[in-house]
Amino acid sequence: MPTYLTLQDTAHRYAISESTLHKWLNREWLTPHKVLVRGHMQYLIDSDELEKLLSERGMLTRTGTTYDDGVLTSRLEQLERRVDELELLIRSLIPEPHYPTAPAKPRPVSEGSLPPGYVSFYAFARLHSMKGGNVSRWLQSNAHYTQTGQWSDEHNHVVNTILSPDGRRAFYLLAKDHATFAACPDCPHAILST
Predict the structure, then answer these.
(1) Range of the domain at 30
(2) How far is CA 168 from CA 3, 116, 126, 178, 180, in A?
(3) Which of 31, 57, 55 is nearest to 44 (CA)?
(4) I want to staple 125 with a disulfide (CB 3.0 to 4.6 A). Which of 22, 86, 110, 130 is the partner?
(5) Residue 170 to residues 39, 91, 141, 144: CA-CA distances in angstroms?
(6) Is there a domain that residue 40 lies in?
(7) DSSP code per residue over 98-111
(8) Percent of the chain at pLDDT above 70?
(9) Domains in the chain, number
(10) Reported pTM
């Protein structure tokens, strides 16, 4: 005589999700037995029919009414291998995203000695005992007095930022009242050109 179980009892007893049982019912792999319980329709599953289906699918080795751990482990390994295969297939079908990199800003490069009247910006700042954040802030707000590139000074050191003659005068006028400012022998520097 067949044993009928509710979907919930079947799911619990055979370690199968209720959603999987619903799929199998929709695909007609199992025959539902409908009963009316307190005004609600319930599906009952014939345990013999379910065990036959599980056996055909290689999902059932029973000791009593529960799965054998070896079968579950084997099935889990099969599913993990299949997931790995599918992931590889998906990767082969979907190209890797290409994130474009921003092009490097063109940097004007000059070679040779400093242009006449120009000085190394950072050497000029050090000469006046100005350093760190004060110099960086001045440079950002007065970039029109500077040029970037690559030159060599009189000691053959590489200079990347140079200061124009007008920039030297502007630097002096803005920095002379700073607490760490030290005047050089050429201060107050040349008059601004018009």
Answers:
(1) 4-93
(2) 99, 13, 13, 16, 17
(3) 31
(4) 130
(5) 92, 60, 12, 11
(6) yes
(7) --PPPPPPP-----
(8) 81
(9) 2
(10) 0.40
